[in-house]
Amino acid sequence: MAPESIPPKALEDNWPGLEAERDGVTYNEKAIRESAKALREALGRFVGEGGSAKGSSLAAGQGSIDDLTKYAALEELRTQLQSVARWEGGRTFAKMLETCHQEFTTIYREVQKNFDIAIALLDAGAGKYKDVSDANTDGA
Fold first, then answer.
1. CA-based Rg of the chain, rounded to a whole angstrom?
2. pLDDT tens for residues 97-121?
3. DSSP state letter for 59
4. Angle made by CA atoms 122, 39, 33, in degrees to the nearest 5
């Protein structure tokens, strides 16, 4: 059974922000760049660059992907679990720990990639708004 279609009149066609002048939408190139800068700083801590975050007791690199790769793999525990003779449950648990660690680091890398994309989009957007603003003010 196909879902019911939404009647055209039910969709709002006057969303706030669609018409910048009417809705008072302004674009601030500096604010956009500041947002990109804040994300860049957060990403730096995320990947283990620089010192600890302001107000944080985290050491540089703590919680980064490298830190997770080194210390969150639980190598010693997995080795110990696998070394117990005739304990299939221990070997299964060790395999599950390895799989979970791999999945977690994969997701962490995806988050890092998405941060990079968001920063690039903000930088590009700020540049476009600056170009438009410059073009509009040069002719005035």
1. 25
2. 999 999 988 998 899 999 999 999 9
3. P
4. 40
